[in-house]
TrEMBL record:
The keyword Signal applies. It holds the Pfam family Glyco_hydro_10. This is Beta-xylanase. It comes from the Bacteria. It is an enzyme of class 3 (hydrolase).
Length: 367
């Protein structure tokens, strides 16, 4: 008999684990990811949404993880449907779960210039927009003052020139220029002097021209922020892996070294694998997804500046790729399998690949 991790956790609660494990495979008896990470001082996390607020999912997340990241519930659109209204109900529910489960909650994301922003922002003057940023940060960071790490700015880098920087277009940069980034970080530091403040970015693992340009542009922004005394503590690299795009371990490793050389810690914040270019056959696809995780993590985890690893959900059914697939083709049969567990929350080869890389990585430095 093969038990899923969810079934094992349920049996633990019922006191029936001892007999069930006799027929379970050895895979279910391996150390969990949280412990494998803790052995090397690496935090292990995942995105988490209010959809996972049920006993089975909660048990799995507590078992495997040391931290969770609210997927959308802390973003401005969720919290501020109107300028006058703050709605923290969904974020509070996740914070309550984190406290019950003794999990760290990671703050994501205070300002996202090009997405997840309420429409009322477009009506504001420059001064009103600065005031709205400060008010949003004061209310949000103040409410969740126990959060130690915040994505202050999400995905600022892009393809549009704003002064000397290539940034993503959006309401904040249109109104305030590149300074919206520095202004937001300073406002966050004023509210939370002890918090770790992070800039979270995407596409940097790609080793095509697009990805290399993203790396260069991100380093340009980092240098500007550091040269002007902006309180930046770390860089989040999302890691939405696209296997149809080139990946060069040496090139990505050198990029991580460039960040570390600037005395910043690194977090892998949203790891998953887009399996659209892989075979339809599930067994072959799962093998390819696992190999993709393995190759990326072997490079990323070799750098001691990388201090945490978070996946963008644990189970395929909760993935944003899965949701897009259903929206685009409700009757389709080929659903994405980008994560460590399948849609029924059974561990896949990707789980084993990640566990193997956690075992072989070097220990993180203390502090």
């Amino acid at each position: 008999m093969r038990l899923t991790r969810r079934e094992i956790l349920r049996l633990v609660a019922l006191g029936a684990l001892s007999t069930a494990l006799d027929s379970a495979s050895a895979e279910e008896q391996k150390p969990n990811l949280r412990q494998l990470g803790a052995d090397k001082r690496l935090a292990i996390g995942s995105a988490f949404s209010t959809n996972e607020l049920n006993p089975d999912d909660e048990s799995l997340f507590r078992h495997e993880l040391s931290r969770i990241t609210p997927e959308n519930e802390l973003k401005m659109t969720a919290i501020r449907p109107t300028r006058e209204t703050f709605d923290f109900a969904r974020a509070d529910a996740i914070a309550d779960f984190a406290r019950r489960g003794c999990l760290e909650m990671r703050g994501h994301a205070l300002i996202w210039n090009n997405d997840r922003q309420p429409s009322w922002l477009a009506t504001l003057s420059d001064a009103e927009m600065r005031s709205a940023i400060e008010e949003h940060i004061e209310r949000t960071m103040g409410r969740y003052e126990g959060i130690e790490v915040w994505d202050v700015i999400n995905e600022p880098v892009g393809t549009v020139a704003f002064g000397p920087y290539m940034l993503r277009d959006g309401p904040f940069v249109q109104r305030l220029g590149p300074d919206y980034i520095a202004f937001t970080f300073r406002a966050a530091r004023a509210v939370a002097p002890a918090a770790k403040l992070v800039l979270n970015e995407t596409h940097t693992e790609r080793d095509d021209r697009f990805g290399r340009n993203y790396r260069r542009r991100l380093l340009h922004v980092i240098d500007w922020l550091q040269d002007t005394g902006v309180p930046l503590d770390g860089i989040g690299l999302q890691g939405h892996l696209q296997p149809d795009k080139p990946f060069d371990p040496d090139g990505f490793g050198a990029f991580l070294d460039e960040i570390a050389r600037r005395k910043l810690f690194i977090e892998i914040t949203e790891l998953d694998v887009n399996d659209a270019s892989f075979p339809d056959d599930i067994a072959a696809r799962d093998q390819a997804v696992a190999a993709t995780y393995r190759r990326f993590l072997r490079t990323a985890l070799a750098n001691p500046a990388v201090r945490s690893l978070s996946f963008w959900q644990l189970g395929d059914g909760a993935s944003w790729y899965f949701a897009q697939s259903v929206d685009e083709n409700p009757s389709g049969h080929r659903r994405p399998r980008p994560l460590l567990y399948d849609a029924d929350m059974r561990p896949k080869l990707a789980f084993d690949a990640v566990a193997d890389e956690l075992r072989r990585m070097p220990e993180r430095p203390r502090g």
